[in-house]
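W.,

You were right to be curious about this one. When I first looked at the sequence I had no strong expectations either way, so I just let the prediction run and decided to look at it fresh. Below is the sequence, 473 residues in total, followed by the output.
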Amino acid sequence: MNIFLNDLVTLNRIILQNAREQFPEGGGKQLRYRATGKVLADDLSAKVCTEIISGETRYQIATRTDGTSWTMTLSFTLSRQVAEIPYVVLSFNTFGNPEEMIFNNVMRTETGNLYRAELVLLELADRDALLRALSDFDAQTTLVVAIITDNKMTNTVTDPKVFYFAENYYPYIYQGIKPPPARLQLILTTLAYQNISYNYYQDYVLRNKLYYLPDIFEVGVDTNKKPMLSFSFSAAENATKLDQVNVTLDYFLLPKVNQQRIANAGEQFSQKQPEAQLLSFASADTLVLQLELPCGKTEEKNALINLQSGIADSFTLPAIQFTTIWDALFSTSPQSLLLKGQLVVQYKGFNPDTLPVKISLDDEYKSKPRDFITQSAPVAIANTLIFKSHAGAYTSPDPHPINFILVAIDNQTFELNAANLTHEIVVKVPVIDLILNPDKKIRYQYDLDIHYVDGNRSRLLDQTTSFEIIYVP
């Protein structure tokens, strides 16, 4: 699994922040339970609960169906205790029209501030509306918790503030309301911007809706502004050479949109459709990611792709290619194709669109490869060393014949003596430093403890060598 999918709660914050920047939000009238302003710090606040399942952080949101009805349940907490049972409302836009779904049941648990809410839907149209509300950023869905007393109504939006969950990243949420096949009927519309033609897709039924695609996918940054790219190394237990070590690159790409292009398209389209609305596509009939790797252009078949959320993917190569990959992250040459590629987007009945994909880092990280290495365990190769001693060292009367020699290396100790002049030992050599510094020789460190026949003793500590056949003393 791509490491950036381990904490889907944090990932969702990153996706939402990017979506706010790349896909403009629509306006509209407010309904009763819609939050109409910023929630003050001392106001009542609510937060959806999370849980950890198989090492993955999840929201406590689930759906189920009995074939004729659909139910969504969730758990949330309030920042303080209230006497009233709150109302829980899902508030969203349907093509610009504000709508609300009020949860049927809200129950207080044994923990005073913890609640369980249940939304039951009996109509297929409501199920479809819920699907779109959760899976399409343009719906701008929020979960509102309202407390109604005799004097006033306290109205707060829960955290996360925008209830948007890409279906391929959050399949557990959609188990009971899996989306139907896409039914959009589209008309290809080509609009020019700065002398370049771009494809847009007009809704055949709702003619004022025009869908657009991102301009490019680039490496995203996490909440600490660090690029979402990570290397890890792996090797079989019996690996003896560097070319038996692999490196895996995990990365997360976010869609980027040229807002000037979209604004210009909106102006052109509004000349034909006065109530024009530009919307971003979330998916397509076919999405194929192709990436240029050292072996050539490769289709990344296991990539998770969402046109609004981004691309989560990883690939594995021989570790001896790490330097090539690292250098490619900083290459600005047009002739350098490595780690560049395209996302092929196709809708039935149309020729495919190709969106550029680029995995790159800013030059400020060029000297910091270790910042992007994530290891759950040390990685090493096994080398066999041969320690040899001379027979004469144990029998010569001058100056001091040796009784035995203790050798300590790699947390192992063995003895050399007249009966055992040679000893082979397997040592583990950490490989990350060797991979980051390919010209660096492997050096072995060992200690000698020499015991003489006359009872004297000599210790030689921190001996180093780059040879694999070592003569002692």
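Here's what jumped out at me. The longest helix spans residues 8-22. And, maybe more interesting for your project: DSSP finds six helices and 31 strands in the chain.

Coffee later to discuss?

I.
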